[in-house]
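Reviewer comment 2.1 asked that we show a complete input and output for one of the modelled complexes. We chose the adenosine-5'-triphosphate case, as it is the one discussed in the main text.
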Amino acid sequence: MIFEIIIIALNSLKANKLRTFLSMLGIIIGVGAVIAIVSIGTGTQQRITARISNLGSNLINIRRGYRWGRSGVSSTATNVFTLEMAEYIEKSCPDVKVVLPNNQGSGLLIKGENNIQATVVGTEAAYQEIYDYYPRQGKFIGPDDLKEANNIIVLGSELVNELSPDSNPLGKSIKFNYQNRTLLFTVVGVMEDKSTGGPVGDLNSQAYIPSTTYMNKLANSNYVSGFTAQARSSEVASEAVDQIEYFLIKAIGDKDGFHIMSQDQILDTINDVTNSMTLMLGGIAAISLLVGGIGIMNIMLVSVTERTKEVGIRKALGAKKKDILTQFLIESLALSGIGGVLGIGLGYIGAYLIAQFAGWPFVVSNLSVIVAFSFSLLIGIFFGIYPAMKAAALDPVDALSYE
Amino acid sequence: MLAVKDLSKVYNDGKEIAVKALKEVSFTIEDGEMVAIMGPSGSGKSTLMHLIGCLDQPTSGEYLLDNEDVSLANEKQLAVIRNKRIGFVFQQFNLLPRRSILHNVEVPLIYAGVGRKERRVKAKDVLEKVGLGHRLDHYPNEISGGQKQRVAIARALANNPSLILADEPTGNLDSETENEIIDIFHDLNEQGHTIVLVTHSKKVGHSAKRILHLLDGELVEDEVVA
Ligand SMILES: Nc1ncnc2c1ncn2[C@@H]1O[C@H](COP(=O)(O)OP(=O)(O)OP(=O)(O)O)[C@@H](O)[C@H]1O
Ligand SMILES: [Mg+2]
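Response of the prediction step:
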C-alpha cells in the first residue's frame, strides 16, 4: 500500500507543476551551491598543490625575518644571509643536498623597441636541478659565469614570446633597468615551459643571471634575501629543516631573524587555508538549504489547508492517520529529493563551467554530493513532518465540511 | 444489525455555546432494512448519520454495529470500519476532482490494501453496476450531477459493505435524476445491503419501508410505511 501512497503523493505534485518547481527551487540552489563550492575549493587546491609540487621535490625555503622598529610601527627586513652561508649549510648539514642563494628584483627588460616588466633572478647552475627546469635552447649559467660575474642572461619562455617573438634571441643583447641602473646582457639561453605557482611565482616570466652579477653589479650588496635548499629525500626533509635551523640560530643568534619552511609545510599551510575556506563557504551554502526547507514547509502548510476536504474524503473512505501522514510526508520528501537531484545536476554544471573558465581541474567530491543530498532529504522530513501531522490530525467531519 | 441506545451528541460540550444536536436517541435497524431519516433542518439528521457512519463519536450512549460496541473503538479501528463495513454517500458527492472516475472508486480499495489488478476489476464492476462502465477515464468535472452521485455510490460499494449510508443523496439533483438514484438504492437493498438515507422528500421517504422522524435532536416517531 505504501507504493500506492507514493503514487498518490507524486500525482499531487504533478498536478501543480509550477508550484512544485518553485517550492523545490531553494533546495535546488542550496544543493547546487554546496556541490559547486566544494568543487571549486578542491579544484583550486589541486591546482596549487600541483604547481607547488611541480617546482621540484623536497625543497626548503629560507627567508629573512623582520625586525620591528623602536616604535613598533615600522619594520625592516634583516640583512643576515651571505653567499658563504649557503656553502656552510651545504657542507655542515648532512641531510641537505644543495643550497641555492635567492636574489631577485623587478625591473624593465628592454630589447630594441620592446620592453617588459620582469623579475630577474640571481642564481647559479644548481637552480636547474632543484627546480627540474632546463633550457630548451642555448645554455644555463655555468661555473665560469659565476666566478667572473659575466653579463649573461637566460630568458623564461614567456619573456621570449613578448620580447622577440619572431627572431632567435640567442647571442642578442638585452638591457635591464633596475633601480636607475641599466646593465647590458647577452642572451645565452631560453628556458623550457613550466607552469608553477606558490612562493616562487611564475618561472616562465622570469629571467636568470649569475648571482655574483646580481649582487656585485645590480644590487651592490653583500647580502642575499634567502636560500632555497633541497633535502636529500622526502624522508629526511624534516631533519634537514632542523639542521638548517640549528645552523642558522648559531650563525645569526636570533630565531626571529629568519623563517624556514619545507615544501610540505607550505603545502600543509595552503591546504589548511583552502580547506577551511571551502568548509566555511560550503556551510554558508548549506544555510540556503535550510531556507529551502522552510520554503517547503510553507508550501506544504498551504497545500494541507487547501486539501482539507480531500483529507476528509480520504478519511471517510477509510484512510488511517498513518496513511494521510505518509502521503504528505512523501510529498515533502519528494520535493526535497527531486530538488536535491536537480541541485546535484546544477552543481555539476556550475562546477564544470567555473572549472573551464578558471582553467583548473574539474573535480566533484562524492562526499559533497552524498552529504548535500542526504541533508536535503533530512530537511524534507524535518520540515515536512509538521504539515503532515497537521493533515493527519484533521477531524473527518470538520474536514468534510471545509469549503 | 445496528442498534443505538440513548445516543447523544453535544457540540462544544461544557461551553456556553453548547448545542445538544442529538438527545438520547434509541432505535434498532435489522440487516436488509431500508430506512429513511426525516426531519426539519437542524433536527440532527446529519449528526446521527455521522455517528452511525463512524465519522464522529457520541458524547454519550451506545452504538452497536453487528453486536460490537463501536463507541469503544479507537481511531484506527474506526477507519477500518469506515473502509470495509460502511459505504457513505454525501449530498455534495465529494469526489476527488483531479482524479479519474475509476481512481475515485479505487480509493477505498487502496486503503483496504487490495492489489492493483483486482482493484481495477472491482472498481469497473461497481461502476458498471451503476451504469457508468463507459466513463472510467473521465474526470468528475466532465460528468453531470446524477452521474457524479452514481460514481459516489459505486465508490461506497467498492469494498462491498453491508451498510450503505446516504445523507440527502438527491438534495442537489432534479426530480427525474432523483428517481434514478433512489431506484439504485432500491436495487442495492434488494441485493441485501442495509440502506439508511436522509431525505427531505416525502416521496423518497415513503419509498423506504420505515421512516425515523427527528425533531430538535429527538426521535419523535418510528413510522412503518404500509
Ligand atoms: N460542528 C458543529 N459545531 C456546532 N454545532 C453543530 C455542528 N454541526 C452541527 N451543529 C448543530 O447541530 C444541530 C444539528 O445539525 P445537523 O447538521 O445534524 O442538522 P440536519 O438535520 O442535518 O440539518 P439539514 O437538514 O439542514 O442538513 C444544528 O443545530 C447545527 O447547528
Ligand atoms: Mg444535514
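The pocket of magnesium ion (ligand 2) is lined by residues B 45-46, 167 (CB under 6 Å). We note this here for comparison with the apo prediction described in Section 3.2.
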